[in-house]
Structure of glutamine--tRNA ligase:
Amino acid sequence: MADAIAGQTAKLQLDEETGEMVAKNELKKRMQKRAKKAATASRNGTSIAVQKPPGSQEPKASPEEPTVNQNTMFEQGFLAEVYKLRPSKDVVTRFPPEPNGYLHLGHCKAIAVNFGFARYHGGKTVSSNPRVLFDLYQLYDCLFTRGRIRFDDTNPDAEKEEYFVAIKETIRWLGFTPSEITYASDSFQRLYDLAEELIKKEKACVCHCNETETKLQRGGEDGSTPRYRCKHAEQDVETNLVKFRGMRDGEYAPQTAWLRMNQNIENPNPQMWDIAAYRIPKNQEPHYRTGTKWRIYPTYDFAHCLCDSFEGITHSLCTTEFFMSRESYEWLNQILVEFQPMQREYGRLNLKGTIMSKRDIRGLIESGVVRGWDDPRLYTVNAIRRRGIPPGAVLSFVYELGVTTSNSFIEIKRFEQSVRRYLEKTVPRLMLVLDPVPVVIEDAQEQDLDVPFSPKDPKMGSHKIKLTRRVYIERSDFREVDSKDYFRLAPGKTVGLLQMPYPIKAVSFTKDEATGFVKEIKAIFDKEGGKPKTYIQWVPEGSPAAEVRIHTALFESDQPATVLGGFMNDIRADSETIWPNAMIETGFYEVRQRAPWPEAEGEKNGEFGPESVRFQAMRVGYFALDSDSTDNKIVLNRIVPLKEDSSKNS
Ligand SMILES: Nc1ncnc2c1ncn2[C@@H]1O[C@H](COP(=O)(O)OP(=O)(O)OP(=O)(O)O)[C@@H](O)[C@H]1O
Ligand SMILES: NC(=O)CC[C@H](N)C(=O)O
């Protein structure tokens, strides 16, 4: 029976316009009809979007056969050029987050670039099959490749332990194993000593100018007045040393003194206009790692290049907003240290139709628009993960986009398309009914049906589903009044039930007097009527209840940040729909027990949560178990719809 049902279901295709499962021929007919209609409409000046007929659709790739090999990113284009500029047997890179918030999708690109570059140039002789590679890569990462995390933890006022922990976790989840985890704070003493050396070389002074004065020295508000050097640049070395030590020993109030580099105010690059090297933070929060030992902290511009040198970073890869900083990076390293890393800049990954800045997300959380940093409508890694997007799908997306020097603004639907492609062949299929209405099949005999988890991949195995007399179908799959162009259930009409040996024909129905809703449908098997035009999903009586959350775009526009009055004025009211009384077939329990689906990347090592329970709910979408679930309550999030949401970037 399983084979017959598998054969039948495998041949069905989703009609993206109606959401029905139909035979290939039926879909072809429908497509031709629609194409004709569209042609007539276009002749009449009105346009209708048409789904491509089966066979003409773009080939669907599986993650095992990626359209873009992950190595392509390092073999061609920007990153290949970077390597050619500095070919090295011992590539060392670092991913350098500031632990002041949770990482987002853009950071996944930075992680893939930094760890991937080191991995590629450290272990490129290994097979290019990603499945085989995973175990080997873990070993390779630890033993041979030199991709590190370095926390840029130079601003204790903004940093918290929870962010350090979450960042490390994200990198593991993406399937990378840092060869080392380091901290700028490991080098605070060494950095301090080098700051004194810079003073002794007359390349830094302690400055007391405030923000307004500094702005004037740099050409005023719009940069149109002549630039000039501040008077503190004339202080002698001894005075600067005494003052700098005074800063260190707490003799200056926060923000009344800062160490400033003596660069070149004439240089057209603002990064060379005597920028800050050390500052006294306003709040004097204890540092997560060094406590109250330091009252002064190095700036990014002082610490980053020096730490890169201390750690022997060969290729310091960062995003293009640091392009101007390259000059000060090289200037400082050349004065103070022997080993010279090479900084190069690639384009940031941005998504249209959302916000990713930590400050803005904090605003959404505080105003109750979203549940928290991991709300599935956001694009923080926590949110993407909770929503059920697998780490392998995130990486595929990054590899697909590749790396150039341009900042990319990608539509959410492109991201979702990539995720859908990844899930299509890697997760099992189940039946889920969002808004159940009972159908009593009067001539049904109770029996167990053995149905495959995948219509095409026998390796996924099969599970039992009980054919009960009373089953549940989607309320929207029944119409009280039939019509010619309607192909699902209606009085006197036949519809196929997925995985069921025979189609059913509705014979009568009752309604709830109070609500006017259909209460129960009576049906019989239609054993003589031949193949039905359309198939719908169902669940047997006794199936577990589930709360299903369907999320769509949080914002109306493509650029919420630029909307008049700010992104808060751009929030969609219907970005979350909850189906509290959905039902899922019991095969779900086996899917849950066999998680993670798919078994790949960072989830393979046993570190996975409920979100790795992923499946395709036929005709409804891809789903994952939400972290609000308990032993007695199933809560599901839709990962992505089965097709692109035409109403909006979902
Ligand atoms: N959108 C992005 N695309 C690609 N790389 C990014 C993106 N955002 C940050 N990065 C890179 O990730 C690394 C760590 O960044 P860090 O946490 O310091 O980011 P950030 O720029 O403060 O992030 P944000 O302000 O967007 O939260 C840096 O090398 C940074 O250039
Ligand atoms: N060079 C870089 O990649 C910059 C990293 C740094 N943590 C930042 O401020 O974004």
